[in-house]
Design brief:
Blueprint (H helix, E strand, L loop, with lengths): L2 H15 L5 H18 L1 H11 L10 E5 L17 E5 L6 H4 L5 E4 L2 H6 L1 H5 L4 E5 L12 E4 L1 E2 L12 E2 L5 H12 L3 E5 L14 E3 L18 E3 L3 H16 L4 E4 L14 H7 L9
Parallel strand pairs: 1-2, 1-8, 2-3, 3-4, 4-5, 6-7, 8-11
Antiparallel strand pairs: 9-10
Helix pairs in contact: 2-3, 7-8
Length: 284
């Protein structure tokens, strides 16, 4: 384990020792230096604003699908996604050759994903929303935007002020991004919310076997480093996203096949998609 992994391990252990009531404050303090650099650097806030401002509320009246990376995706026929606006997360592009199409957007926040797979991510010809903290992986351009978590900010849907710090998963950043773009309805799939790997939440671990927790056994295959999930933090973010959407007359539903997340209303993906009153790419 290298120095960076040891540092993350130490940070995760200390964070897990904090009382739950103190954790939001700790998250806010932690991101202050990074946020300030993002605000003043040309390739940070100013670049993000220039690229993303034209997208704000562009998709009012439309729906989108946020595609997680759970193995349940292998139980689904996803050809219907050709007609949908879609957010792919992390290494979802491993499925693009099989599908014969790509997602509309790609969101990646975790340092291990961005650093280990930067060449693959950079090669994707779609709009990419990435974590400013790991900007050294490749420079921003018209399809590569870096966003930053913001200290002291609630989840309010304005990604240009920074995303909510305590969301615990890239899915919550994608939900904020979907809100910013104006989507009225978000349908989640592939958010299985269960992992076979066990251990202290947030700890980095090096995989020694084929990946059972994602749709592809090579997703975090032997030798790859990833972080164990923190269910408490993830669910706190999901509750905040639910409140954000519903308090503004929008909705998030969960069409994951046999998923374990119990926060958003459960729906049958195909039946719900057929009955949805919101627009997709074909009838925008």
């Amino acid at each position: 384990m290298n120095l960076e992994q040891r540092l993350i391990e130490t940070q995760a252990s200390l964070y897990n020792l904090l009382p739950e009531s103190i954790r939001p404050f700790a998250n806010r303090v932690r991101v202050v230096p990074t946020y300030l650099r993002w605000r003043i650097r040309a390739e940070g806030y100013r670049h993000s604003k220039r690229v993303l401002e034209e997208f704000r509320n562009r998709y009012r009246g439309s729906r989108c699908v946020i595609i997680g990376n759970g193995p349940s995706l292998n139980q689904m026929d996803l050809d219907v996604l050709r007609a949908e606006y879609t957010f792919g997360l992390n290494r979802i592009y491993l499925l693009f050759p099989k599908w014969g199409f790509q997602t509309t957007f790609l969101v990646a926040i975790n340092r291990f994903v961005i650093k280990q797979y930067r060449k693959e991510i950079h090669a994707q010809n779609l709009v990419k929303i990435l974590n400013w903290r790991h900007r050294e992986s490749f420079p921003p351009d018209e399809k590569t935007v870096y966003v930053c978590s913001s200290p002291g900010r609630e989840m309010d849907g304005d990604i240009l002020t920074g995303y909510f710090t305590g969301g615990g998963t890239v899915t919550n950043v994608a939900l904020e991004m979907a809100y910013y773009l104006g989507f009225e309805e978000v349908i989640l799939i592939g958010i299985d919310h269960t992992y076979s790997a066990k251990g202290e939440p947030g700890m980095p671990m090096r995989s020694t076997q084929a990946d059972k927790d994602h749709f592809d056994p090579t997703y975090f295959g032997p030798g790859a480093v990833w972080q164990l999930p923190n269910y408490m933090t993830m669910e706190e973010g999901y509750w905040r996203a639910k409140h954000l959407f519903e308090s503004n007359g929008r909705q998030v539903v969960d069409g994951t096949f046999n998923g374990n997340l119990q926060i958003f209303p459960k729906v049958d993906f195909y039946a719900y998609l057929a009955e949805s009153k919101f627009k997709n790419q074909h009838n925008f």
